[in-house]
Amino acid sequence: MINQFGELVYERQANERFVRVRRERHEFIKSRLRLLDTSLAAEGRKLGVSRVTMTSVSNGTHSSERIQKHLAETLGLPAEDLWPEIFQCHVEETTHMEP
User: Fold this and answer.
1) pLDDT tens digits, residue range 8-39?
2) CB atoms near residue 7 (< 10 Å)
3) Sign of CA dihedral 95, 47, 77, 53
4) Burial class (CB in 10 A: 0-12, 13-18, 19+), 57
5) R_g over Cα of the chain
6) More confident site: 1 or 83
7) Residue 87: CB partners within 8 Å, gap ≥ 6?
8) Beta-carbon-side half-sphere exposure of residue 1 (alpha carbons within 13 Å)
9) Which residues contact 80 (CB under 8 A, 6 or more apart)?
10) Confidence (pLDDT) at 5
């Protein structure tokens, strides 16, 4: 369906949903870290990266497998649960490889 601006509505809705999911995931990660008496900045210091980098990865602006796996481990969750769009692809790639 095309709206009055000539945009495909379902693409815009899908993009809005994706942005909302990323924002909610970021807030979830921050709140879980607070419950563990730590923060993105503190975890970044452990990894030797800036808080800005940690925030960028947490909110989905950038991707770093090392940081994502560290955050997931810190939270006690599988990385596939936090970032399924990234880690499910890795799982599928490795399961479909020819011997």
Assistant:
1) 656 667 778 778 889 999 999 999 999 999 99
2) 11
3) negative
4) buried
5) 16
6) 83
7) 68, 78, 79, 80
8) 6
9) 87, 88, 91
10) 59
